[in-house]
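Posting here for the record, re: zinc ion.
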Amino acid sequence: MRVFLLCLTMVLGTTSAFGWGCEGHQMIALLARTQLTPAASAAVDKLLKDNPISPTLSRFCKDRPADIMADLSTWADDARSGEGTGAWHFVDIPMTIAKTPGDKSLDKWCPENGGKDGSGCVTKAILEQWQILKDKTQPAEARARALRYVIHFVEDTHQPLHDSDNTDHGGNCTAVTYLNEEKPANLHAIWDYRILQTDMERRKLSQSAYTAAIGAEFAKRRAGWSKEKVDPEAWAWEGHALAAKLTYGLLRPLIPVEPPGEADCNAERARVAALHISIGEAYIGQSLPVIREQLAHSAARLANLLNQTF
Ligand SMILES: [Zn+2]
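Prediction output follows.
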């Protein structure tokens, strides 16, 4: 997966991003499912089942859950090159930017038109696809496609490196040592799925058991979360703050904050390699509670959006 990610980054020259990996994406959808109203749950199933994806599309995730919403939560990653929607999975807010009151717009980092991999970014894609999903005059096939995108992108936005960039393609060009492994791992993959997998393995929990554990851990927060507005830009700013505080902020030594610009992946890798950064137990211990909260919060927000829709 790591090699695959790095290769893809080099081929596409863009932020390679499989936000949360297979396990994380599917678990968020499984948890969101438990928070849907019966009407929303049935409508989601009907739309997805009545409008199946192409049977010839190659699916990256091999252990696919029976729940159709969880299964199709990873469709957008499989379809990204065919649909030309790679840019919709992230918004590259530079690490030089601090959120300032009155300047919350992400337009600067969300290209409207052009670009080699389509246009837009994750926050606009959520709102645009949600509009299509809500519009009953749209063909059912378009609404099903929009639903698959909305599920995936609400999840992606909650991975801090999908909202952040240190001129390193959202951590894809930042190679560090993970738990004393011989081969370097890229920071994006570590946040997508490595830390999560480490936790699942250590606790010996299956996907369904881990989903239930996260649901229980954050059950008391759900009432507050269910009152939140659908606000993808606010979610992206939250992710950016977490990247500054934890994802990059806990690295030792710190990687200098780079001015925004086009990433030179090889140069960035060499620069970071010279710092000999190693991610160990202290980093994982501080990141894991936040990763679990982001999964749970993402599930609650996805459920809110779908409950409002159907
Ligand atoms: Zn994605």
